[in-house]
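Subject: for your reference before the review

Hello V.,

The reviewers asked for a structural picture of the protein, and I figured it would be easier to keep everything in one thread rather than splitting it across files. Below is the amino acid sequence we used in the manuscript, unchanged from the supplementary table.
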Amino acid sequence: MSSTSPARRIAFGSLPPLVAALPAIVLLLAWSDRLPEPSATHFGVDGTADGFSSATTLLWSSLGLAVLLAAVFGTVSAARTTRFLLGVSWAASVLTGATALVVVLANVDAVDASAVRLSPLLLLLALVVAVAAGGIGARVAPAEVLADVPVTRGGSLDLAPDERVAWSRTVTSAPMQAIGTSLVLAGVVVALVVQTFPGVIAAAAGLLSLAFSSSRTTVDGRGLTVAVGPLGRPRWHVPLADVGSAVAGDVSALGRFGGYGYRVVPGGSGVILRSGEALIVTRTSGRTFTVTVDDAETGARLLTGLLERTES
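And here is what came back from the structure prediction:
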């Protein structure tokens, strides 16, 4: 596993939003006298302007969105992260920056803002460029990359026959928070610039991702329980009688499970909110259930101790 300093990761996560917003901000400042007042800032699916605001409002909204993105991605990049997360940062930055630039260019030298047209092809081009930028960012960013093959750690805790004990940890997914934040911000941009309904759908998907970006893992006499989200739903439970063995290990969310959330892979399933430390339970059927969680070794040792106590 390779490691990079938090300062470098913060730079790679927080600078792209600011850099991507610069072209639109510079043009807004330099060409303020060439923009209609108010300017067209919202467009229908046919490219017709149907919403208007001042150039000053457009300037401050572009700057504010860039600073917000920089703060969000800089914060999540400060922790151990992945190339995928930094790629999302670059893609979201370019998408918002390019959208703002396209809107500014569409308004330049327009006599009547109501006559401004925005070609959907330009927005599609902005999306393509954003995806490409995300791929480049994921490739060049100095992120930590975790091996796909887990290095497992086992063992058990000695428990008295009548001893009641439980272990619980909560983990938050920086990638899911970044994806959720990006969808919310992109949805707001789409709702304000293009059309309300698609923007609301994207923002709702982002809020859903944010709502389910944390999980609580509990090990007690009943077995293993994983509850997701603020309401503890959905919930997965592996009864102690169904536990064959339990170990801790490092897993790769993308390499092993192909993404984040509840994942089903050949031979097992899991609640994967990040790459890194995980509790890996092999059920009596031979299938595995994996959950990414801090201090997974203690959870695995306790689960093994509980299992051994029932068998003695």
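For the response letter, the relevant points are probably these. The chain has eight helices and eleven strands. Residues 145-151 have pLDDT under 50 and may be disordered.

Happy to draft the paragraph if you're swamped.

O.
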